[in-house]
Amino acid sequence: MRAMIASVLAAMVLAGTAGHAVAEDGGGSADGVRWHASCATGPDDELGSKLDEAKARCGEISVPLDYRDPDGRHLTVAFSHLPAKDRADRIGALVLNDGGPGVGALGMPLRLRDTLGQYDLIGMDPRFTGRSTPLDCGWPTALHLRAAPTRAAFADALHLSRDLADRCSKDKDVLPHATTANTARDMDRLRIALGEPRLHYLGYSYGSYLGMVYLQLFGQYAGRFVLDGPVAPDRIGSDLLRETGPANEAALRDWAQWAAGQDATYHLGRTPAQVVAGVQELISTAERRPLPVGEHRVDAGVLPVMLWMLVPDDRPEGNAMLARVVMDLRAAARGESVDPDSPLMALAGFLLTGKESATASALAAITCADRATAVTARSAWPDIQRHRRTEPVFGSLVRNVGVCAYWPTRPVQTPVTIGNDRPALLITATRDTRVTWDQALASRRVLTGSRLLSVNARKHGLYREYGNACVDRTTTEYLLTGRLPRADTTC
């Protein structure tokens, strides 16, 4: 969930199948690929049709559910394969990951074919996501973490987390195997199935961690690796966001300065302080009575989640999106109807219905399988109170109890320890609200052969997304030539 709500919704909707129980194909090896006659699964499959138009192929491989039992139960891993435009200049296979976790990458080759056409572009749907063997707990909401500005909201959050975890109990035989390490093993099975001597890789956000794990486990087969938004590997898991409150509060103030300069358009306040005070008043209003947004009700536990989803983007369109949502929330607080075409309506539908249950379930399963949470009902509320003054909007969200506290299974393997000198290009924004600057520096320290490319920006995900010519040029040059910058670089 790295971009504005429009792109978030597009990524989630196009990720693939939802609403299926966990299935298995009865076994088999990863020695080959089952190719499909068409990427489109039917006349309404927009993504599949676009892949077919681009001359891509779609297939799947069989992988073990548990690599400790390679002859046991198997899953399928789906992927798209867009061949290099010019076979004479072909570099190799570039695997793509769009982050999440829980988001498929089947459509990513379409975004990058014009820039990286010397590669075979591979959009792999990680296990339990997209068109791979699915995992769907049947959740009525995409929320798996709520804010807790009040004691009542904290109780609501605990109830939600317990309920969602209970709904996943039916799949507890597969939940422990939704690890990033297993996905990295699946990637190498795909490399073998495609007959590639090595894999090149571009991963965003959570995908950066997946890339680190592959480098650690299969470094001898790793080619050119780009990790955009590098997650500190020792923080991966359900507590990853716990220390990001200050960065999100700073981002809100940064946005408020922009909004104050646009007061004639959005009427949110003539000074940054007025804009922030207006946001805090909205939360207070939602504490007293949920805000009506169409058929949905936005309470004080949900409203900070909406702000959190939209604040990490300082581009004009990102700032404008957040301003429009806050403006419509203020109208809802006055009892006015929200335009059905408003991004607020789309955001409420995304968060407060079960249509993205499969994506949210996979996100939680992967997160909870990688590392157990240290946050409990006993520890969370005092922690929220200690940071109430410095993190008034986002502290009760990022420090709250999540679904992993009640997860029906415990991790069965410890996370992979990262530390190697394999070359990689790390890309980060210094004011990133998801993967903070200190996390990028931590990643740089354990990947000693890497180079860090940084930008003073408030954006999560930079290459070919933010519009920084230096980032795009430097990254593309590395991917096409294999030459890393001589030193860490600031764009």
TrEMBL record:
Q: What is this protein called?
A: TAP domain protein
Q: Which UniProt keywords apply?
A: Hydrolase, Signal
Q: Which PANTHER family match?
A: 2-SUCCINYL-6-HYDROXY-2,4-CYCLOHEXADIENE-1-CARBOXYLATE SYNTHASE, TRIPEPTIDYL AMINOPEPTIDASE
Task: List, for all copies, the residue spans of the domain called AB hydrolase-1.
Answer: 93-260
Extract one GO molecular function annotation from the record.
hydrolase activity
Q: Which residues form the signal peptide?
A: 1-23
Q: Which residues form the Peptidase S33 tripeptidyl aminopeptidase-like C-terminal domain?
A: 392-491
UniProt family annotation: Belongs to the peptidase S33 family.
Q: Which SUPFAM superfamilies match?
A: alpha/beta-Hydrolases
Superkingdom of the organism of origin: Bacteria
Q: Which organism is it from?
A: Kribbella flavida (strain DSM 17836 / JCM 10339 / NBRC 14399)
